[in-house]
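Hey team,

Filing this mostly as a record. A colleague (T.K.) asked me to run one chain through the structure pipeline before their review meeting, and I want the input and output archived in the tracker in case anyone asks later how it was produced. No errors, nothing strange. Just documentation.

Input sequence:
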Amino acid sequence: MGGYVCTIAGGNGGVGKTTTAINLGAALADRGYETVIVDADLAMPNVAELLGVDVETCLHDVLAGSATISETLTDAGGVTIIPGKSSLDAYAEADPNKLPKVVNTLARTHDVVLVDTAAGLSTETTVPLELADGVILVTTPDHVSLTDTGKTGTLAEMVDSPILGALLVRATTETPIADIDAEFDFPLLGGIPENAEAVGTEPLVTTAPDSPAAEAYRDLADELAPVFFDDGEVEDIDLVPREWIDQ
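Output structure:
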């Protein structure tokens, strides 16, 4: 039995997919799970940039056939990543159809493989969705983001990928979480509160561990662990104070 492959997707860019991948990965690693984050946004990778890591050998090199998977494994302050490279040449040479071999290999050596995907509906999105044991759809409260999240969820269902649920980031006390929950056919995992802390180049769960957002990411890791490792099912997960949801 291999490790759990969790694809983190979203309908549009800038909604917090990469931030979620990094912080969920850090929270799982803190709990002793061998976790790797794969930056599979081939056109606009930014996991390494957000973590302040200089990229030498990357996923694009593997997908172009010029490097091995082991050569790309990079430690980023306690989080293991396979970074991408922001280069048009690298993008042109990378073959997304080789991604399944990369992910399947990593799943044999890690407990959890978190795949950070590109936004939108394309081959670069479809392939990571097809590989997933479970999909987390990241969205903001913005109407366009919610609509596009629904479309991405439909795509996941079309390729028979189980949807763990939607994760609402940048939630505030004014966010109508219960109303948003009613918009989706899949579960709402909860909300990650808006964070005002300076993140720097380390995961929020490391730089601001007592912030509400960091606590929410740790709670998410705890709630998902039974799903990842014990064949459990996603229950109602409240990642923000109950009174926010009951407004």
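Quick notes for T.K.: The CA atoms of residues 113 and 238 lie 24 Å apart. The domain at 4-245 is CATH 3.40.50.300 (Rossmann fold).
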